[in-house]
């Protein structure tokens, strides 16, 4: 399946389903059963910072950043409906908001070496070209700038609940595009190993600062274990992983040498 066809299918899927994701998985939350930014403090001070959100969705993470004192709020999303929703949500901060409807694999007009922080909350895994997307993100950041992203842990959807137990139904090792079972519609996600995300970041000249896949479980388990994000599954494998990386500051390295 061609990349352009996958992007077309995924865009159509998001236009149909955007409402059910309104405000879900947005900062300060990183994802299901994960530690939050209020616990991790990965971003550090954001007052006066120029921020870019890759896969900004309904704009709730940008709203969180704006409320925290960020100077400029930029966002990119594939979905027309998501961009329209984000514009409405961020209306009170519109003087510092710039949004683009675009695939993350392309630069829709974003300035280079401009941003202090780029992040992506549960969106980066939608890319059809991880290497190109990370290369763009690297180019947007100032030297020494921070890139933080979260995504569904790649072991999570390998497990299926059947006959009162969890079974490893798919290979973790085989990578590539596949229909996303959680959506029950024709959207395509690329399965990638955790090592692929890490190694592609390194190849894009990022320095890995932290990789987090700690699991936070509720005190009681009440839901159906067959749910996509169930507590029962989270007791076995993490649902979310988080990576913090930094753009290498070459000038600083030259001074120190």
What does this structure look like?
The N and C termini lie far apart (48 Å). The chain has a single domain, classed as Rossmann fold (3-Layer(aba) Sandwich). The protein contains 8 helices and 11 strands. Strands 3-2-1-4-5-11-10 form a 7-stranded mixed beta sheet, sandwiched between helices. A two-stranded antiparallel ribbon has the order 6-7. It is α/β, with parallel strands linked by helices.
Per DSSP, the total helix count is 8
The geometry reads as globular
Reported for the largest beta sheet, the result is: 7 strands, mixed
Terminal CA distance: 48 Å
Secondary-structure element order, N to C: HHEHEHEEHEEEEEHEHEH
Number of β-strand runs:
11
Main sheet: which strands, in order across?
3-2-1-4-5-11-10
Q: Point out poorly predicted stretches.
A: none
What is the radius of gyration computed over CA atoms, rounded to a whole number of angstroms? 18 Å
Task: Specify the CATH architecture.
Answer: 3-Layer(aba) Sandwich
Sheet/helix structural class: alpha/beta
As a percent range, the share of strand residues is 25-35%
